[in-house]
Amino acid sequence: MDKVTVRTIMKKYKKGEKIVMVTAYDYAFARLVDQAGVDAILVGDSLGMVVLGYPSTNQVTLDDMVRAVSAVARAEPRAMIVGDMPFGSYEASDEEAVRSAVELVRAGAEAVKLEGGREVAGRVRAIVRAGIPVMGHLGLTPQKRHLLGGYRLRGKSEEEARELIEDAKALEEAGAFAVVLEFVKAEVAKRITEELSIPTICIGAGPHCSGQVLVMHDILGLAPFSPPFAKKYFDCGKAVVEAVREFAEEVRSGKFPGEEHYW
Ligand code: KIV
Asked: Which residue has the CA at smallest separation from atom 2 of ligand 1?
């Protein structure tokens, strides 16, 4: 099967096929999620919370993201690799945004994602002009949670809905090829999806979107806590504890290593 590119994503979108994106942050899981046939792997800055144990995504650095993107890229996935631009890597200027995006592409990203609406449209335009595809991210934008008043559902009032629609249009106009909508009222996500001619990829924003994304650690039951809109498909956390407990018991009882494990 051919490598997924922005063109593939657009073709799927035009055919009305749902786009599937999931996060991964290392070589091992990038191989597995790619085998599962996702369209895109998001190397999200959620890395900070689900892998590095930080209290928020704001502690994640560009170096953290570069290391994770390069590990995912070494898996040579068929899925498109989208590298998240961390807090502090694109706010100061267009030049800094382009430099940071270039670092992610050098590490193996095939597109970058950044948070914000009209206020980052200039950054999006500059990165696209540098030849790098950009995915926008609206609604709950965790990097700006202090400004937004916490991790809250967005689009509850008509005024907020209109703001989100204007933001989405500005991102499309600036050249973004897709927009993530996080924790947005489903009806508002539907309106945005209808207004745009690029795909919306939703998380906690209902079914009326062009695709869905979830954090892998939420799907697999590996996250210490998960948002209410995430769905756990498997309790991998429990399976890990059971397997390691069995190993520990076998070591203590002398059952491991068995004869087949040494020479
Ligand atoms: O960092 C991340 O994993 C994300 C998703 C929640 C969309 O931005």
From this structure: 44
